[in-house]
Design brief:
By secondary structure, the chain is an all-alpha fold. It is built from six helices and no strands. The radius of gyration is 15 Å and the shape is elongated. The mean pLDDT is 82.
């Protein structure tokens, strides 16, 4: 997820990076749009590694509420971390 997140920053926010004239760890934070850029990067990263349509199909197999255990199981099925799955579920 982390790699997809950073690639998403580059794809979505490279203009901010260009305007700053450098790439550094906090260039996007200095842009004044930290919440927007993080949300956008999380959204694209989660879409890249956990396809929404496939996730919906898999979730339909569960009759119980989405608990921490279900998140862990979904994460395992998709080969991602539980944190990445939690982000995807929050954004979907």
């Amino acid at each position: 997820f982390t790699l997809a997140h950073e690639i998403a920053h580059y794809l979505l926010h490279r203009q901010i990076i260009i305007e700053e004239g450098e790439w550094s760890e906090n260039v996007l934070l200095r842009s004044g749009q930290p919440l927007n850029v993080e949300y956008e990067a999380n959204r694209l990263a989660s879409d890249l590694i956990i396809p929404t349509d496939l996730l919906k199909q898999v979730i339909a197999e569960y009759s119980e509420p989405i608990t921490c255990e279900v998140i862990d199981e979904l994460a395992s099925r998709f080969g991602v971390s539980s944190a990445a799955m939690e982000i995807k579920l929050q954004l979907s």
